[in-house]
Amino acid sequence: MAEVRPVKKARVHEGDHGAEEGLGLVKLVDRRRVDVEKLVTHIAHLEKELKEAQVKLSEAESLLQQIRKRSPPKKDKCEEKVASRGVTTKFPLESNSTVPKESNGAVAKSTWTSSHSSPLKKTWVADEGRTSASVRFNKTERSIASSSHGVAEQHSKLPASSQTYSGRIQDMKPSDKLSGQKKFKVVVPQREHMDLIVNIRSQKKAKKLDVGLPSYIPIQHKRKPRSLVLSPATDHLCATSALDGVVNFWQIKEKGLGLNLSHTVDCISPITRRWPEDLAWHPMGNALFAVYHADGGPQVSIINASKQKPEVQFLNDKPHEKGIINSIQFMPWSNGTQFATAGCDHGVVLWSEKEGSDRCWQPHLLHRVLHSSSVSGVAGIPHKQLVLSSGLDKRLFAVDLAHGKSAFQHTLESKALGVLSNPADFNLFMAQTGTPGQQLRLFDIRVHRTELHAFGWKQEAGDSQSGYISQSWSPDGLYCASGSTDPKIHVFDIRYNSSEPAQTLDAHQKRVFKAAWHPNLPLLLSISSDLFIGLHRIFE
């Protein structure tokens, strides 16, 4: 009988096992060290912000004490002096408010600093009018009825810098349905022109932004998002739209620390059951304008942004002949009275608000023969009243409204997917193309057919470019952020002498449709097909 030998067990080398365990612990320690360094940096930023906030608080408290020491003017004397100039005023004066007076004893121009959170101080100047109306400033109702002369004469005596950021209040039809009450037509403050073209490609090294760790909020849409727009008049308000036809209004928390869903509005078109293709805020921030498909149903709708009375009104005019309306933009010179739309019917339409009518807009066809293919985007140049348009026929056009003719055109080597004017330099604009690695092009409206700079990114998901991916300028006009078919946000510095991004942010899990700069807060918002909104805080 054969002898059964016991099987020998393999020896475990304790030294090897200990080495592997030690290597794993070293990696773990490295990761923990990196996390600690990030948290330390974040805490340092928070401490810096805390100190700045404390300084601002102390300044505000000292200013408040100085104002409270002043003796308030008597109401009856104020009304008597105002009546002596033929201007009737009836408004409650706060205990810490004063009425400026001229040397002759008459009441000077009525000015109040707006409570708007924009860094630019906006001064509302009461102008001459025919009827009385009510204005609400700092939760205090003041009724102002101006005569045919008096207050408006002093506005012309202001220095040019003061007139730049002053808003003129004029009478508006009391039946305006956007607010349900008497309303004023206020001139939107215009920014001053800054010459940024001389800085293009002037630096060998890009200045990167200090972007914190992103936070994500579910977008609350059932289908893929389409648009993300931030209110130009209210810092804490933005809106998103998606293929489900719903527009979500969001409240941005203080300092961009999060988002809260305010309310939703169903904006599906009544006949064709189409969703909004693009959105644009009215410059006053009281309504959203949306564009749809041009086959049969309504083409433009006005969405009331009020949470108390959300409603959608569809315009009856249908100037576009067929296809999708790709873009809508308010013209920067119009003070909210003109916007332009561009569609697949090769046409660009300028809509103008009718005077003396309630939310009635008159369309005017600018051109339908310049482009030989779909018009993908539209924009406005503020100081020359030029309407820019980009088309899939590889051409860019600028129409001069003052002379009623085409000012110039640019021909590209690939499809033009969009156009965007610079918010700081009025002569600079950017076009999005379909060329990999050179998707974005910079042009000067004063130099025809000359490209200033070309930059872009390389895609891992393929070379095809999507027209639904859009860009946005930073408020200072030096940076541009773009989405991508990859789950990334590309940030470009126009001063960087390179065609590559200044930095790339790993933002989402799927393609990023848009990355939008906040006009006043150091914040970058993004939407993606992963159905999340990304908040990316920028530290100075």
Automatic annotation (TrEMBL):
**Transmembrane residue ranges:** none
Q: Which residues form a coiled coil?
A: 36-70
Q: Which UniProt keywords apply?
A: Coiled coil
Read off the Gene3D superfamilies from this record.
YVTN repeat-like/Quinoprotein amine dehydrogenase
Q: Which SUPFAM superfamilies match?
A: WD40 repeat-like
Read off the InterPro entries from this record.
WD40/YVTN_repeat-like_dom_sf (IPR015943), WD40_repeat_dom_sf (IPR036322), WD40_rpt (IPR001680)
Return the protein name. Transducin/WD40 repeat-like superfamily protein
What species was this sequence derived from? Sphagnum jensenii
